[in-house]
Amino acid sequence: MKKIILILMTLTAMLSCKNKSKQVVKDQKDTVKTIVSDSVTATPESNLNSKYIPVNTWIDDFKNLRQAIFLKDKDKLKTYLKFPVGDESWGYLVDFSESERKSRIGKYANPDLLYEADFDRYYKRVFDDDLAESIMKIKADDLFEKHLAESPDFKAGDFNFKLIVNYVQEDKNTLQLNLSYNNNSVDENGEPVSEGEHNKIYIFEVEAGKKLIFQKVAFAG
Description:
By secondary structure, the chain is an alpha+beta fold. The chain has helices at 2-42, 45-48, 58-71, 74-78, 98-104, 119-126, 129-135, 140-146; strands at residues 148-150, 154-156, 159-168, 174-183, 198-207, 211-220. The chain contains 8 helices and 6 strands. Strands 1, 2, 3, 4, 5 and 6 form a 6-stranded antiparallel beta sheet that branches. A hairpin with a 5-residue loop joins strand 3 and strand 4. The model is unreliable at 1-49 (pLDDT under 50).
């Protein structure tokens, strides 16, 4: 009888140790899960889903500019401008209507300039659909290696247009985005019509070899 009781006590002790061992393993697993969960949560979501890359050289900032124009990310686009924007000798970013100009007189020192306060309203006129469509076809690798890249031709009504981007190294290095429009109409003899051909050129200064800052827009033709 004593022998049976001793066996039962031994089995009970063994089962108890086994259960404690399982509990320790379970607790360790739960702790590991908690640590992993905390580690993931501690990583800012913006770092995981960022739409833009770190800027080490001007081609990186061009890629970010291209992305911002395509996404119509007005907050990001603001970082490329120093307000107010516009230049009487070169031209203004937005061609305000007469009624728009009247509403701006007295509100701004120069109603023809674009101010940060109304950028949200007019930014689509600045970075328009033609630019958004064509800039996505610019190959960044070609631009970086050759300092020149072109998009394919696009058709818009009576005009074809394409974007020509070139990096110009001078006293102040610039990146120029040239929207070039060519008339695709023909006259009664079937000859190409050249009237109306024009260019809209966005000029960005390259600061410290990497940061693009919009300077002006120039019109030609």
